[in-house]
Amino acid sequence: MKRINIKCLYCNSKAFLRPASAVHGQEYRQPGEEVYVCARYPACDSYVSVHRRTHLPMGTLANRPLRIKHMEAHEAFNRLWKSGMMSRTAAYHWLQVQMGLPPEEAHIAKFSEWRCEQVIQLCSQFLAPNTCAA
Ligand SMILES: [Zn+2]
User: Fold this and answer.
1) The pLDDT value given to residue 3
2) Is the pLDDT of residue 99 over 90?
3) CA 16 to ligand 1 center in whole angstroms
4) Distances 34 to 4, 6, 9, 51, 65 between C-alpha atoms, Å
């Protein structure tokens, strides 16, 4: 397992690998699931999910507003491929092209709030091109 140094972008503290129940509560039982959590958690409410196989973080540490944006962007993006208009793979490719990002950068978990907003706009325009986003 590769040791990596991860810092919290909000308070500059170190982040530590901990079981997911550390942030999701003891009733959250997903054995093997881990998160990188800011050393100052819960004073600094910031963490990121970890890939099971590699133990590497899925993106950068995110605070609550950013985590909510990530969820909203994922929902918008899932609607796109679940609509049946394109496959999930094609939808990821479409997103890369629309945002002008290389494949390794085009992951919603890595996006800033501003980029998440872009994803939501792009997906809703694609699904309803003739309606104005209010
Ligand atoms: Zn922090």
Assistant:
1) 66
2) yes
3) 11
4) 15, 14, 19, 8, 21
